[in-house]
Amino acid sequence: MNAMGMNRQTGRFISENAHIAQSVQDILLPLVGSRVMRRDYGALLFSLLDKPQTSALRLQLMAACFSALLRFESRIRLEKINIEQHAETSQIAIVAQIIESGAAFSFHFPVRSR
Question: Can you tell me the distance from the alpha carbon of 33 to that of 96, in angstroms, rounded to the nearest whole number?
């Protein structure tokens, strides 16, 4: 069964992969504590982005993504998270498996430093 979700901007139906990608981005972008009614929702991603780029920071960024997705996105089983850091932006690449169907899921998105 191929589930569908709703696009948060248009209100139209979207595929399961697109809905999971939308959800992943929604989980990772807000800073923990920024949602009034859900203070524990989000990731520590943006609190880490402006720090000096080191291998330890890269590991902290991956851990922040992993822990937030493990907690708030139960439809996927994470296999790999990679952070590519550049001067102005970082690219987050996620490889996972959709639990219900066993299908592969991958998602990339840029995040900009403040």
Answer: 26
User: What's this model's pTM, rounded to 2 decimal places?
Assistant: 0.82
Residue range 11-112 in CATH 3.10.450.40: yes
| Residue ranges covered by each domain of the chain | 11-112
Digits of tens for pLDDT over the chain (114 positions)? 466 788 888 889 999 999 999 999 988 887 777 777 777 777 888 788 778 778 888 899 899 999 999 999 999 999 999 988 777 777 899 999 999 999 999 999 887 655
Q: What is the DSSP annotation of 47-111?
A: HHTTS---HHHHHHHHHHHHHHHHHH-TTEEEEEEEEEE-SSEEEEEEEEEETTT--EEEEEEEE
